[in-house]
Amino acid sequence: MLNELFILAKIKEGNIKVFEAIFKLYYAPLCLYAASITGQIDIAEEIVQDLFYTFWKERNKIQLFHSIKSYLYGAVRNRSLQWLEHQEVRNRYKATFLFGKNEDKSISPQEQLEYKELQDLINQTLLQLPERRLRIFKMHRFEGMKYAEIASALSLSVKTVEAEMTKALQTLRKKIEYYTA
To answer: How many Cα atoms occupy the beta-carbon half-sphere of 166 within 13 Å?
Structure first.
């Protein structure tokens, strides 16, 4: 555990060499682990890359209670399960509203009306976003592009893409908070 604390201390100091060593040691096994949960290697790679990005970005806030290995595997498991949950929600949405297959016959006309109002509100809010923010949002959410792909396509930094997505999502959350309460 002392070795782990020493490694974490070096990473917190900004020692990129130690971070790279951790990355090289765990990247491939973590990708395989995430792929075993998600069933998709490209999604697994994105999850692990995002984890390491966040690990480096938030390195000063990280507290280890066990080992770096257990921290990374736990984080990959959680992110992979979140991705699966998100996919399940998307699939239900597609089945229910896009294809008209309403498995839950208990959706009332009131709920259908609220859904329609929510869709209209989301569409109106999206149209009010600045052009670049809207484009980034559409590329990520509707076309399924990763932040790095968007950054490359628009000649922006990944940080800029991330910031624009954060702002877009904050705007949407504010507008729809009535429906989520």
So the answer is: 6
Residue 125 buriedness (CB in 10 A; 0-12 / 13-18 / 19+): middle
Task: Say if residue 8 is in the same domain as residue 70.
Answer: yes
Nearest residue to 52 (alpha-carbon basis) of 124, 141, 137, 148: 148
Token pair, residue 117, equals: 């109002």
Q: Give the Cα separation of 22 and 33 in Å (integer).
A: 16
Residue 47: band (very low, low, confident or very high) from pLDDT cuts 50, 70, 90: very high
Tokens 């329609």 -> residue: 116
- Cα–Cα distances (Å) from 20 to 17, 76, 161, in that order, read 5, 18, 24
Residue type at position 126: L
Domain count, the chain: 2
For residue range 96-139, list pLDDT tens digits in order. Answer: 665 555 555 566 777 777 777 878 888 888 889 999 999 998 88
For residues 7 and 73, membership in a common domain is answered with yes
Identify which of 111, 99, 44 has the alpha carbon closest to the alpha carbon of residue 73. 44
